[in-house]
Amino acid sequence: MTGQTSEEKTSTRSCRWPPWSTVPLIQHCQRKHIQVTLVSRLRLDARLFDPPAEQPKSKPGVKPKKGQRQPKLDERLQDPKTQWVSMQLTWYGGEKRTLEIATGTSLWHRMGLDPVAIR
Questions:
Q1: Does the pTM exceed 0.85?
Q2: Which of 20, 118, 106, 42 is nearest to 68 (CA)?
Q3: Which of 20, 50, 60, 82 could connect to 67 by a Cys-Cys bridge, CB 3.0–4.6 Å?
Q4: What are 99-116's pLDDT values in tens digits?
Q5: What whole-number distance in Å separates Cα of residue 81 and Cα of residue 76?
Q6: CB atoms within 10 A of CB 67
Q7: Cα–chain-centroid distance for residue 102?
Q8: Nearest to 68 by CA among 25, 112, 107
Q9: pLDDT digits (tens, 9 = 90+) for 70-92
């Protein structure tokens, strides 16, 4: 990695991180911090859950980490209740494209790991 700027080194390192870990991407530009949103693909059969319901403090035992299971993404594609919004985005090379998106929040869970909040 010789001859690379610190931003290039950070970006290169973040690509090698395991997918379940947090990726802190903050670029430095003239002593100002610019926050970056990481957009990534998600498998259509990903295990998505609601947040856990509040548990009484008096209830003994381990508190749940995830709530009810949400429909898989491939099921949401076929669901007529899914609300799609058309957005025009700047694509590669400055080309304008119109995409339909559906957005929401979930907890993404993989076996043996803690759930991760995603949008």
A1: no
A2: 106
A3: 50
A4: 888 888 899 988 888 898
A5: 8
A6: 14
A7: 14
A8: 107
A9: 999 889 889 999 999 999 988 88
